[in-house]
Amino acid sequence: MERISAERAAPAPLVLPSNRELLAAVLDGVGGFGHLILHEAARDYDPTLVDALAEASPDAAISVLPRTAGSGGFEARVLDALEGRLLPLSPVPGMGSLAGRLAEGGLLLRYQPILRLRDRRLVMVEALARWRSEPVALGAGSFVPHMERAGLARLLAAAVIRIAARDLMRLPGLGALCVSVNLPVEEVVKPDLGAWLGAQLRRSRLPRARLAIELTETSPVRDFARMRRALQRLHTAGHEVLIDDFALDDHRRRLLRLPFTGVKLDKSLVQAAARSARARQQVRRIVRTGMTVTAEGISSRELWMLLRGLGAHRGQGFWMARPLPLAALPAWTARWRARQPR
To answer: 19, 21, 134, 270: which could join 90 in a potential S-S bond, CB 3.0 to 4.6 Å?
Structure first.
């Protein structure tokens, strides 16, 4: 494959002949390739792993080399693919009937690990929605706003919760892991939300305490008394409720006076803390509220240590793990545990 890479302009192709190499590439966060080439002869590719890897290089072409495609050996067929003669790519389909696509299994989830900063223990995963598409699954920004505008936020939330609850109950080896899901303001303040969440969890038997809610910033909170009542209902039902994506000088700072369980620091604030005394002071002020503070976007060991020193309790980010399909989560957990000091 050295000859192939030398003959082509950067970025080089990424060739994965089996599912084992594909899983390793996902866990390693491999990105920056211009062309992802899979060998159909392996016959064991997990499409969720392909989607997760492709997210790291969204502009890359994707080719699957059939057993009979082209002439010569595997290397010759890779060259054919690079020349554009073997690209069985389908255009990204229209959204069509969003509700219908959901019912047909149009949704899939990624799980980003959230770890306790003081002891590096995995305590939670955030469920991140993706839309099944070819050749690459679409990120939440491509469809969630459309669904919310179409009045389908609760239908989407139901699908996410049911899939996440089912998936967590399939992973007993990870312990009593919690999962967080995103909900907009309009859903959080509905009086029936607690009972509705219980109905979604009933089939999987996931305990309520293992489902946390992240309040998204897509809509402002206008009625603070109503939000306070909603939080009290959810706490009574057993759910954590977190403020999501809290940024430097966030206009939502009044929310910090409400009885949220925790707050997630936006990646921009976390990154700014490395160079800005004002950002570090804001993190300290948030920590002093007594809420559980989760730092998003941790991209290095130095940021991990900084946020731990500032008093943050949890962290997530690419230094630990990218959003992973369920199939990769046990392997990532084993690798993470092996990295920890004895």
So the answer is: 134
